[in-house]
Write a structure and sequence with these properties.
heterodimer; A: 326 residues; B: 460 residues; alpha/beta; 4-stranded parallel β-sheet
Chain lengths: 326, 460
């Protein structure tokens, strides 16, 4: 049976894992009732908590956690202590403009490769890696083509399915009705698997998600690979597409996020921006005020916890927001 | 003049100051009565208890005049560098140059406490979207925007990577407001893989040589920026001299800690020791003077130890303290509850260890930066804490959570587990906001409970 590694970070390339003959399993964890395991860890963000619970209970042969945020870095430590599976903590450089940072990322991929071999995989040849990259690139192209042709919720779910399985199961109907209501951009932390009701709430309030720029949305898809250099040095091309291209709030400086957002807000025609962030997520929380000052459209700060009334509270706020910009 | 060590109020210091002056006290230019700082707005001073020595007076005056020192340095044409989130590395490099003064803008996190929220620093942070969900270091934003507490530095550096999210996010907000930052990466320290080239770090941990090489390359970027700023070469000879000078400070502090945390009765209060430890990070903007301040403190502490004198009654519960407190008054509170400090880990133990002098300077600094307890796993930090607990003979541990700090969500439990399983000592977690007055009964109850458990343990 093919061993699997579970992870959640968008900067971990599934191509690299798959090329080793290991199954990449990028999860969107689901929130659930708090377990006794993390009961003492007050101030832990709901996403980090959900990932930790899921990773500990999963049947994956290995776990990959990146340092994209401090809380996840520390979750890796808890998992290494309390889970029988090997935990690979990947240092994801926050700085990105120096050659040293780019080289560091590449070295981390190589180090990850050694773990994948230990888990039963095999170091890939350049040809094999390039072939796997092309396969993923093709699926991503098909995935991007779905945007606007299936419902926004279905599109984002298809992204999540692709991350989890590497496959695309959604198909565009031949004549999809155009989405109705006020176009909204959704930005922020990754979704929880059981939080896709947010898309329904937005539609019920008279809007639709025209741009899923969350960490689990299309913003974190890597750029298409540079075909001319793919055969010669696929690993470097892979690193450039992920580390060199994905815009994110955690990067220092993070101006590339704003450049990407400016372009995509215009392309999508979004008339409002909802920043969905978890309570205790400092990275996205700190961006909200700056986004308000910067954005050409109104901004709603939607803080999310995992308590039972999250949906009801969010519904009221989203309804008022969309009503105000209609 | 009576020279019995004791803890006194600010009121008491008025008389004590007159007494010391009458006895011939000679002070540096920044000297004077403590009360003047209260009159300048440092309102918290009225609620603290202080050590009554001339050495401690000098320590406080040195701390509370840093802003004037920075403005003076600027007036003299020196270059100012703000070293954010960097606990002890870049300042050593900066002070190796003759015309550069480094300071620690993060130190503004104490302003809401020292000025009892009268500064508006936190309100400025609030207005910028950095609210109370973040660590109190958010006060730094207010300090930058108002320019009321330190001059805007000529160069601003910030360590990111394996650091706390709140600080990284706050620094990004600052940069977006128009304060350019030279970011440098501190990777998450990991244990070397089998067969991987590894090196020992100050403090005892091991790290892959590749990580040290990476940090060294980051520090080389900083060296280039410092040279440009100072218009002077920062060669290895200068750096080596800077490291030796920093080590002189660290050696003095090490001896001070050894005496203050092991002698019975306790010769120097927790509050003054906290301030002293903080000075070692960036020398409070004057490395040469910080050396003199430490020498004075050490002389006074030795005198007390030799005389068998202390500021607390003998038998106080011996407590190891983890993380700095946002409210200085809590250090007094521990002592009022029957405890004393016997060891600390204020998040910068690497800045207390001597920097290797037998290595090329940049290699030595890179190793020290990678020994930062914040960049490694909490379990490493807990191991270091256990080692220091053994050295200082602590009987219990306080983990003081910093409100909103991303690392505090999980590390307290990790540290408590390791301490309890390795040493069998009681551990109590508390959370200390910048002004803890309304929480004093709760804090007092928890501190007293730990003290009682320790005392009961002695009789069993």
């Amino acid at each position: 049976m093919t061993p699997a590694v579970l992870y959640s970070c968008s900067f971990v390339p599934p191509e690299w894992i798959a090329a080793h003959g290991v199954r990449p399993w990028r999860t969107l964890p689901a929130s659930g009732p708090a377990s006794a395991w993390l009961a003492a860890d007050m101030g832990l963000c709901p996403y980090a908590r959900a990932f930790a619970e899921e990773a500990r209970a999963s049947g994956a042969e290995g776990l990959i956690v990146s340092t994209l945020c401090d809380q996840m870095r520390r979750v890796a430590e808890l998992l290494a202590r309390d889970s029988p599976r090997p935990v690979f903590l990947m240092h994801l450089p926050t700085t990105w403009q120096s050659a040293a940072s780019r080289a560091y990322y590449l070295d981390e991929l190589r180090r990850l490769g050694r773990l994948l071999v230990q888990l039963g995989g095999a170091a890939p040849s350049d040809e094999r890696l390039a072939a796997v990259m092309l396969r993923y690139d093709a699926v991503r192209a098909a995935l991007r083509a779905l945007r606007g042709r299936v419902s926004p919720k279905r599109f984002s779910e298809a992204l999540a399915e692709f991350h989890a399985t590497g496959a695309l199961t959604a198909h565009a109907p031949s004549a999809a009705p155009p989405p109705q209501g006020v176009p909204i951009a959704l930005l922020g932390a990754p979704m929880l698997r059981n939080h896709f009701w947010l898309f329904d709430l937005i539609e019920e309030a008279g809007g639709h998600v025209a741009l899923d720029a969350t960490d689990s949305g299309e913003r974190t898809l890597p750029a298409p690979f540079a075909a001319d250099r793919l055969r010669a040095d696929p690993l470097r091309v892979l690193a450039e597409a992920y580390f060199g291209q994905i815009p994110h709030a955690f990067r220092r400086p993070n101006d590339a996020l704003y450049q990407w957002l400016r372009r995509e807000l215009a392309r999508s025609g979004a008339r409002g921006l909802i920043v969905r962030r978890y309570v205790w997520c400092d990275t996205w929380h700190a961006e909200v005020a700056r986004l308000r000052e910067w954005a050409p459209v109104p901004v709603l700060d939607l803080d999310v916890n995992v308590d039972g009334d999250a949906e009801g509270r969010a519904a009221n706020r989203i309804q008022a927001f969309i009503e105000a910009i209609q | 003049m009576i020279d019995t060590p004791r803890r006194i109020t600010l009121e008491d210091w008025d008389a004590r100051y007159a007494e010391l002056r009458a006895a011939g006290l000679r002070e540096p230019a920044y000297g004077g009565p403590l009360r003047r700082h209260l009159d300048d707005g440092d309102l918290r001073l009225a609620r603290l208890l202080y050590d009554n020595s001339a050495a401690s007076l000098r320590l406080w005056n040195f701390l509370l005049t840093e802003e004037e020192r920075l403005r003076q340095a600027r007036a003299e044409g020196k270059k100012l560098i703000g070293t954010m989130k960097d606990l002890g590395t870049v300042p050593v490099m900066a002070y190796s140059l003759p015309n550069v003064v480094a300071f620690y803008p993060d130190g503004a996190w104490w302003l809401p406490c020292v000025m009892e929220m009268s500064t508006g620093m936190l309100e400025v942070a609030d207005s910028l979207g950095i609210d109370e969900a973040f660590c109190p270091v958010r006060a730094m934003l207010g300090a930058f925007l108002t320019e009321a507490h330190f001059p805007i530095p000529d160069l601003l550096t910030c360590s990111v990577g394996a650091t706390c999210d709140d600080f990284s996010a706050i620094a990004q907000r600052l940069e977006a407001l128009g304060y350019p930052i030279l970011w440098w990466e501190a990777p998450s320290r990991r244990r070397p893989d089998p067969g991987e080239a590894a090196v020992s770090l100050p403090g005892g941990f091991a790290a892959p040589q590749a990580q040290v090489d990476f940090v060294r390359s980051e520090l080389e970027r900083l060296r280039g920026a410092l040279e440009t700023l100072a218009a002077a070469r920062l060669d290895d000879a200068r750096l080596a001299a800077g490291i030796r000078a920093a080590n002189r400070v660290r050696r003095l502090l090490a001896e001070l800690r050894r005496l203050a945390y092991t002698a019975e009765p306790c010769p120097l209060p927790a509050l003054e020791m906290l301030i002293a430890e903080m000075l070692a990070i960036h020398f409070c903007s004057d490395r040469a003077e910080s050396l003199l301040v430490f020498e004075d403190l050490l002389r006074e502490t030795r005198r007390r130890v030799d005389a068998g004198q202390g500021v607390l009654p003998p038998g106080a519960a011996r407590v190891f303290w983890v993380n700095p407190v946002a409210d200085l008054r809590v250090m007094n509170l521990l002592e009022s509850c029957g405890g004393r400090i016997c060891g600390t880990e204020y998040l910068f133990c690497h800045a207390l260890d001597e920097i290797p002098e037998d290595l090329p300077p940049m290699e030595a600094l890179a190793r020290m930066a990678l020994a930062d307890p914040m960049v490694g796993p909490a379990a490493d930090r807990a191991e270091r804490i256990c080692s220091d607990i053994r050295a200082f003979g602590a009987e219990g541990v306080i983990v003081s959570r910093i409100p909103g700090a991303s690392h505090c969500a999980t590390e307290g439990a990790v540290i408590a587990d390791v301490v309890a399983s390795s040493l069998g000592l009681p551990v109590v977690e508390i959370e200390v906001p910048p002004l803890s007055d309304s929480m004093q009964p709760t804090l007092s109850t928890r501190l007293t409970a730990l003290v009682e458990v320790i005392r009961e343990g002695r009789t069993e």
